[in-house]
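RECORD TYPE: inverse folding
INPUT: structure tokens
STRUCTURE:
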């Protein structure tokens, strides 16, 4: 049993660290306590106070410089002409996918270039509640979407012109990286405006390096338990070594009232804090913030010089002993961590086969296993992204291939050939003219999207050729409100379905038939969608075929009818999300209705 407990304890990295640190601390505290009680107490060390005040002044000047860098950089970005040009172009609307990517690349590059001009700046963001946000470094747009900016007071204050700029307390950056706690930052926020309209379109966020800022106050030593922190003009703690003090407030307390009565730049005084008599030193910064240090008075009462000499003697001995023990112990901890770091460098080079070897059961071993899982998940995500992009490109290429249906073109040209052979030159001429008009209308269009009006014009040209081929008994009727004729939809979205309706449904009937197209735009809650129905009074679809028709495996085996629907279905889901798509309603012998449902709130490329 004892052996089992011993093995279990040694498997825990925290246990190893605690046992070693406790041993060293116990030895150190015993020696120092003995020395302390053998030394005589002295008076309050004026030299310590003078040194502390000087250090506080230096840290305050250093922090003031960092804050000035943040505010100056905000002005530089705010007036950048290239960013303003992007903002004004997006304000005009009708931005294509390529333009959006170009805008993002342009703004991200500018922010990165500005960020790299100062080693104190960790990241820069342009955050907007609506539309795309931009950022430098490891900016994560999905985190912005989850953050819900308009629910936070700081965002509303700058966007609604309640404050021209503000500083947030130290925090872990909520908008970068893949985890919850990433980089420690001190954040400067100011409204970002369209200089042409003076409208605040979002918030400009500049994150200063929180570690550098903490180092500025942690390097000031004030007793054993003394601490330094920075409060703003409202009594809010914005910088502190202790994370529990971040965003804390001393407003309206006796401590705050005493600080407000100070008129000099640097001051020191004693006050009761939590029923403990404490020594306080404070220095005013350039922006009306104060750096404040507190320590119990008892901690700075001693004969510092005598204790310093004795501590240096025994401390040197303990330092050598602790160095030997610490070196041996650290080798056992750092060796696997170095291996893990080497594997991380390989992953940075996109080598996803770089998996670390798990050799222990403690926290380092668990970290190695998590690292291996993370690498596998990243590799899978990259594969999925590549598949989605490939599918998008394939759909766009199919859209181009479907602009003129090869089967339709072949059949039309065959009919024209026989007319020429039998000297029906007028009919052949009319057929070729209609075909040329359709091809010209199709080829002159650029881009993936077009308006509903353009799509209907193309269908009218297409129907001229269909009537030439099948006779005047084939008709096309359209129901569409004028207000949505300018709505953008993917090009050649309707032609494959109309062709299917004519070829498979109406053409086999001697008396011909009608193809009806209706457009309805609906708004329900936060959802905006467009319903398109293509109805024919043709032969319909057998029930057993209808149930299988929209399955991907069946679509590829169903001839041109299946390929056309598959193209339309994939195109809709690609640009409007997986909840959009195609549905079929048909009764064998009584016509077919093909419905298209487009969730406009999901698509990124439609415009009114």
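DESIGNED SEQUENCE:
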């Amino acid at each position: 049993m004892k052996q089992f407990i011993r093995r279990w304890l040694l498997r825990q990295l925290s246990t190893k660290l605690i046992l070693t640190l406790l041993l060293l601390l116990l030895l150190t505290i015993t020696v120092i306590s003995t020395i302390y009680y053998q030394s005589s107490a002295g008076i309050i060390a004026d030299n310590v106070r003078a040194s502390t005040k000087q250090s506080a002044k230096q840290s305050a000047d250093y922090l003031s410089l960092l804050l000035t860098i943040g505010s100056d950089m905000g002005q530089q970005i705010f007036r950048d002409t290239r960013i303003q040009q992007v903002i004004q172009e997006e304000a005009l609307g009708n931005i294509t996918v390529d333009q959006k990517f170009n805008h993002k690349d342009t703004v991200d590059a500018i922010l990165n270039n500005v960020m790299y001009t100062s080693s104190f700046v960790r990241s820069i963001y342009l955050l907007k509640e609506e539309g795309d946000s931009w950022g430098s470094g490891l900016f994560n747009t999905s985190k912005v979407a989850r953050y819900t900016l308009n629910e936070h007071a700081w965002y509303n204050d700058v966007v609604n012109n309640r404050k021209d700029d503000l500083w947030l307390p130290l925090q872990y950056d909520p908008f970068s990286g893949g985890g919850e706690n990433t980089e420690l930052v001190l954040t400067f926020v100011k409204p970002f405006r369209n200089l042409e309209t003076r409208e605040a379109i979002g918030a400009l966020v500049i994150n200063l390096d929180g570690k550098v800022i903490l180092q500025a106050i942690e390097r000031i030593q004030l007793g054993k338990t003394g601490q330094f922190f920075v409060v703003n003009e409202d009594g809010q703690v914005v910088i502190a070594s202790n994370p529990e003090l971040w965003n804390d407030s001393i407003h309206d307390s006796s401590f705050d009232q005493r600080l407000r009565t100070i008129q000099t730049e640097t001051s020191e005084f004693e006050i009761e804090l939590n029923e403990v008599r404490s020594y306080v030193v404070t220095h005013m910064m350039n922006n009306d913030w104060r750096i404040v240090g507190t320590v119990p008075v008892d901690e700075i009462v001693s004969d510092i010089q005598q204790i310093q000499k004795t501590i240096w003697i025994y401390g040197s001995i303990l330092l050598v002993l602790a160095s030997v023990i610490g070196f041996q112990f650290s080798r056992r901890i750092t060796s696997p961590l170095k291996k893990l770091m080497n594997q991380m460098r390989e992953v940075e080079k996109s080598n996803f086969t770089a998996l670390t070897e798990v050799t222990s059961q403690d926290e380092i071993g668990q970290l190695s296993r998590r690292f291996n899982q993370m690498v596998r998940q990243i590799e899978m995500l990259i594969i999925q992204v590549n598949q989605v992009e490939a599918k998008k490109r394939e759909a766009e290429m199919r859209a181009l291939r479907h602009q003129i249906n090869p089967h339709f073109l072949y059949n039309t040209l065959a009919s024209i050939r026989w007319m020429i052979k039998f000297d029906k030159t007028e009919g052949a001429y009319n057929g070729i003219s209609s075909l040329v008009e359709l091809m010209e209308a199709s080829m002159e269009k650029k881009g993936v999207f077009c308006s509903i009006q353009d799509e209907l014009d193309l269908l009218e040209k297409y129907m001229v050729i269909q009537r030439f081929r099948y006779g005047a008994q084939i008709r096309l009727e359209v129901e569409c409100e004028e207000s949505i004729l300018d709505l953008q939809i993917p090009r050649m979205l309707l032609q494959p379905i109309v062709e299917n309706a004519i070829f498979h449904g109406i053409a086999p009937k001697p008396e011909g038939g009608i193809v009806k197209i209706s457009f309805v735009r609906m708004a329900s809650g936060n959802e905006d969608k467009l319903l398109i129905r293509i109805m024919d009074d043709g032969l319909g679809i057998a029930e057993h075929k209808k149930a299988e028709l929209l399955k991907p495996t069946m679509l590829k085996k169903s001839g041109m009818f299946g390929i056309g629907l598959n193209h339309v279905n994939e195109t809709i889901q690609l640009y409007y999300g997986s909840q959009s798509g195609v549905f079929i309603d048909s009764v064998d012998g009584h016509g077919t209705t093909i419905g298209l449902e487009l969730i406009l709130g999901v698509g990124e490329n439609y415009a009114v």
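NOTES: Residues 553-561, 602-608 have pLDDT under 50 and may be disordered.
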